[in-house]
Amino acid sequence: MTGSVGCHRFEARVALVTGASRGIGLAIAARLVAEGARVGITARGREALEGAVASLGGPEQAVAIAGKADDAEHRRAAVATVLERFGPLDVLVNNTGISPVAGPLLQTPESALAKTFAVNVGAALAWTAEAIACGGLGRGEGAAVVNLASIAGLAPSPPIGAYGASKAALVHVTAQLALELAPTVRVNAVAPAVVKTAFARSLYEGRESELSAGYPLGRLGAPEDVAGAVAFLASPDASWMTGQTLVVDGGVMLAGGFAGGRTGGPTGGQTGS
Questions:
Q1: How confident is the model over 40-99, as pLDDT tens digits?
Q2: Cα–Cα dist 125/173, whole Å
Q3: Is residue 100 exposed (0-12), middle (13-18) or buried (19+ Cβ within 10 Å)?
Q4: Whole-angstrom Cα distance, residue 129 to residue 121?
Q5: Nearest CA-CA partner of 96 in 76, 125, 73, 136
Q6: Long-range CB pairs of 234-239, under 8 A, 24+ apart, other chains included
Q7: Of 177, 152, 138, nearest in space to 247 by CA
Q8: Cα–Cα distance measured from residue 100 to residue 110, given in angstroms and rounded to the nearest whole number
């Protein structure tokens, strides 16, 4: 992967990152800002977003819009705010994700399944449509969308089957949009394994060493690991890549692991946002 923190791949570029008040989303926003971008960030909590803006360098570098990812009014307001503050969008990162239930797929309540797909798949599609129709994405050179998938979408992953199914759908959506939006907008995805975030804390807290033993690289992921991969896919360094899902998993799938665990070994979990 080319490029590093401190270079200027996103100089004069504008990005919108959803689910970015903490964890992976905030790390992605920070990486883009470090490389020259100005960013809009979204999440549900207004106070957390205000702190995130401060950490990104203040209002000259970032603007925050609070709301729910699957709320059409929020999406419209977020895209309009970024457009007014910084100009047309060059990059959209669909990071928001939920995993409200765990357990066998056939025991997942219909309401929980519908909500999971609405946020993890439907909202990503809707954000992309809004960014293109109203945010200027694709009108300039080098437009890119990066979706946050998961290795749970690449292999059966009990006990988070509903989450995994939604991420599998997002992987397919990524390829479909890449074909439909070419050549003006590139669309790729990143599929992490377990990342140390508040979202995934219950999966590793108190047994991180045991869980890490199942990863050939010997550790769980950090938000910055994912941020680097996202920045690469959104940058000119990946200008001849579209429709791809980049696995960032510490090698766990090579060792027979998957997002929900590892046969005969430690149990894993979903990515964080």
A1: 999 999 999 999 999 999 999 999 999 999 999 999 999 999 999 999 999 999 999 999
A2: 8
A3: middle
A4: 13
A5: 125
A6: 234/10, 234/15, 234/32, 234/91, 234/93, 234/144, 234/146, 235/3, 235/9, 235/10, 235/35, 235/144, 236/9, 236/142, 237/1, 237/2, 237/3, 237/9, 238/144, 238/186, 238/188, 239/142, 239/186
A7: 152
A8: 12
- Residue type at 168 in one-letter notation: A
Active-site residue, selected from the candidate residues 127, 163, 199, 215 = 163
pTM of this prediction?
0.93
Q: Mind listing the domains of the chain with CATH numbers? A: 14-262 (3.40.50.720)
Q: How many helices (H) and strands (E) in the chain? A: 9, 9
DSSP code of residue 120 = I
- DSSP per-residue string spanning 244-255: -EEEESTTTTTT
Q: Within 10 A of 5 (CB to CB), how many other CB atoms are there?
A: 12
Task: Provide the CA 194 distance to its chain's centre, in angstroms.
Answer: 13
163 a catalytic residue: yes
